[in-house]
TrEMBL record:
Gene3D superfamilies: NAD(P)-binding Rossmann-like Domain, UDP-galactose 4-epimerase, domain 1
Name of this chain's protein: UDP-glucose 4-epimerase
Taxonomic placement: Bacteria, Pseudomonadati, Pseudomonadota, Betaproteobacteria, Neisseriales
Record-linked InterPro entries: Epimerase_deHydtase, Lipid_A_modif_metabolic_enz, NAD(P)-bd_dom_sf
Pfam families listed in its UniProt record: Epimerase
Domain NAD-dependent epimerase/dehydratase residues, every copy: 3-240
Organism in which the protein naturally occurs: Paludibacterium purpuratum
């Protein structure tokens, strides 16, 4: 089998590519290295049976030849994070929507047999139902969530009209080794780990009683593998841990003092995936409990030594546009 992974230098993409190689697949690695790490690519190339193309998915002319002879496509490339999407929605649209269109067209023209898309649970906005099923309303609160939902609509439509077998996986709060250590203010794990290294208190949003469906990265990569190997098509499936955990619980596991910063508009008090569908259709269940996942993160704590150090003051500045725009809707 020959598989192509977009976003292969990134957090989830590098884990997925590693699993594919371990299963004996030939893997085409595609990434523009705008946020992913070249070191991840070099590690994968050293294993053999793979090739790397440094390509922006918005450049269809450069992208399309990468798909020659590919059986399975795993589309994980995209722009993430909330604040940059509020500040620069056009870039998010061009990468997450136009880029997804280019991936779909390239896969279709080269006769790929299957495409699995990395969707986002942020499409649910502030859900009314917990655990949240795939049938919950789509209600994105910010441009990142909207563009990921639009990408999913394209994927499902191409599956219907052009008979390209597709699956969309809506990912919940993925964490684990190789998660981003640089860039804009974002995921709580990266913020907290850098703070722990410097002995600073953890900046807890609100009262810390909000809960998140923290899902370990190897469980997520395994869900992609199983979706790619299945004969299911046209389906959306949640990928979550099977539980949800308070941010205060995460702080207890990491060990350290806390300081509190204002709650942000447009964020749910809880994320919690209903995973009955993926269990029923694929037999997938998360295997890594939060306690083990946090221990794994602490074991590679030094990876965050050069990560940005976020303080209440710098977070306030970084999230100003978030409050200015989304706060006005409250």
């Amino acid at each position: 089998m020959k598989a192509l992974v977009t976003g292969a230098a990134g957090f989830i993409g590098s884990h997925l590519a590693e699993m594919l190689l371990a299963q004996g697949a030939e893997v085409v690695l595609v990434d523009d290295l705008s946020t992913g790490k070249r070191a991840h690519i070099d590690t994968l190339l050293a294993r053999g049976r793979c090739e790397f193309h440094q390509v922006d998915i918005r450049d269809r002319a450069a992208l399309e030849p990468c798909f020659a002879g590919v059986d399975q496509v795993f589309h994980l490339a995209g722009r993430a994070d909330i604040v940059p999407s509020i500040d620069d929605p056009e870039t998010y649209f061009s990468v997450n929507v136009q880029g997804t269109l280019n991936v779909l067209q390239s896969a279709r023209r080269h006769g790929a047999r299957r495409l699995v898309y990395a969707a986002s649970s942020s499409c649910y906005g502030i859900p009314e139902c917990y655990p949240t099923p795939e049938t919950a309303p789509i209600a994105p609160e910010y441009p990142y969530a909207l563009t990921k939902a639009m990408g999913e609509e394209l994927v499902l439509h191409w599956g219907k009209v052009y008979h390209l077998p597709v699956v969309s996986l809506r990912l919940f709060n993925v964490y684990g080794p190789r998660s981003r250590t640089a860039g804009t203010y974002g995921a709580v794990f990266g913020v907290f780990l850098a703070q722990k290294l410097k002995g600073l208190p953890f900046t807890v949003v609100g009262d810390g009683e909000q809960s998140r469906d923290f899902t370990y990265v190897t469980d997520v990569a395994r869900a992609f593998m199983m979706a790619g190997a299945s004969d299911i098509s046209g389906e959306i499936m949640n990928v979550g841990s099977g539980g949800h955990y308070k941010v205060n619980r995460l702080v207890d596991l990491l060990g350290g003092e806390k300081t509190y910063i204002p709650k942000r508009p447009g964020e749910p008090d809880c994320t919690f995936a209903d995973t009955d569908k993926i269990t029923r259709l694929l037999g997938w269940r998360a295997e890594v409990p939060l306690e083990q996942g946090v221990a794994n993160m602490l074991a590679c704590l030094d990876d965050w030594r050069d990560a940005p150090l976020w303080t209440p003051a710098s977070i306030e500045q970084a999230t100003k546009s978030w409050f200015d725009n989304l706060g006005a809707q409250s």
